[in-house]
Specification:
Blueprint: H1 11-40, H2 45-79, H3 83-120, H4 127-156, H5 160-184, H6 189-213, H7 230-258, H8 262-278, H9 280-294, H10 302-329, H11 331-338, H12 342-355, H13 359-374, H14 378-403, H15 407-419, H16 424-435, H17 438-442, H18 447-451
Helix pairs in contact: 1-5, 1-8, 1-9, 2-3, 2-4, 2-7, 2-8, 3-4, 4-5, 4-6, 5-6, 7-14, 8-12, 9-10, 9-13, 10-13, 10-16, 11-12, 12-15, 13-14, 13-15, 14-15
Protein name: MATE family efflux transporter
Organism: Paenibacillus silvae
InterPro entries: MATE_fam, MdtK-like, Membrane_Transporter-Flippase
Amino acid sequence: MKGIDYTTGSIHRLLFRTAIPMLLASMVNVITQLANVFFLGHTNQSVLYVLSLYIPVSFVMISIIEAMQLSVQVAVARSRAGGSKAFTQLFMHMLGIALLLAVATGGMVLLLTPVLSWFYHVPADIEPMFTGYVAGMMAVSVPAVLAAVSSAALRGLGRAQAASWNAVGTAVLNIALVYTFVSILRLDLQGIIYANLITSVSSLALSLLVLLIRKETVKERFVFAKRHLITLRHVGIPVFFSYCMIFLSTFFFNKIVSYFGEGAVAGFGVGYRIQTMAILPGIVLGSAIGIIINHNLQAPHRERAYASYRQGLIHAFALYVVIAIVVWICRDPLVSFLIEDAATRAEAARYLSIVALSYIGMGPMMTTLLTMEQSGRGYQALLLNAVYFLIIIALGWVLTRTFNQVIYFYGVIAGMNVIGMCFFLPFMRLLKREYVGGAAEQGRITEGEAELSQQGYSTQA
């Protein structure tokens, strides 16, 4: 099917046509995460405590998954002209790299698990549960990474519909399995491990089956070629470091909150998960803006690149006024629905009562950062992320230890979300200068833009 033409037509309409399918696909993961929190939230506080401690650890594997996914999508989309033989070689390279990275990273995390237990002062009676859960999830992450690579290959080949149905099917399967293992069989965290293992293997098998049925792969002798790794350097590395930054930040966030006990960690973890889901529309909108920008880099269309960010930012503000108010008003019924333990429920509601309204700034901030990453400014976005997280960690640590109240840490997060809006105007002026000013007249394309100028693959059905 012919892809969307981003060089003509209403930018407002293009933003919606691009962002809504991406958002619907991403909502599958949101619903799955909410279901997991719901089922585990009706067990006991220790389970939620371990689940909250695992949040920063999970970002280690997420960084590999996201880096590999984006790299594979871009590389496959660019290699389509080479036919099945070229795709088969590329796909084999990417699967091999993903396998090596997943095994090496998982092994490293396993070796560091005792250090994590010591760092968080995990109680002795809970430590076996924590180490067992980390070990199980690291093992499950290996097929999960391979499944993500295979699904990304389908999207890069223009078979996004097949990849989406795969995601929906495996998400439904995951929810059903978690319910069975956790709520019926009472396996608690082990149930999450078993459910993720089954769904990851199923997703991998389905993606490979589609590739075989559609004859996208051919029988080919593997020959190592360095050119297949270029996309990892230009696309995957900035994405990987961005998620590593999130890992480090949440690692220290949990350390700050752990000073106030298990209930605080469990409640903060639930509130933080809700926040992660709430900012998803901003991330998707930023990706949609980046796609439009990358299709309008040539001289006749560069003004549309600037207009896409300006209009997208307006949409982001309007959307997050609604999201912030809804989350703030509904915080108590939301956490009551997800969590049974009263202390954990109260802490999660307290976190959202302080931070939720600041999503009005955080959502558009995420939109801007994703736009920067998608338009060849990934390292600048990484620097801004680093400054944002470092200030929260440093100031949050000092204030909580000085006043012995965790709400000061929550207040710092809310304050930084508001302060983050300060760089919208300078970034907009930068885009206007590059796309509408002298750079537009010369038709100049920066090196970063050139590397990312072919990211329209995600809109093909």
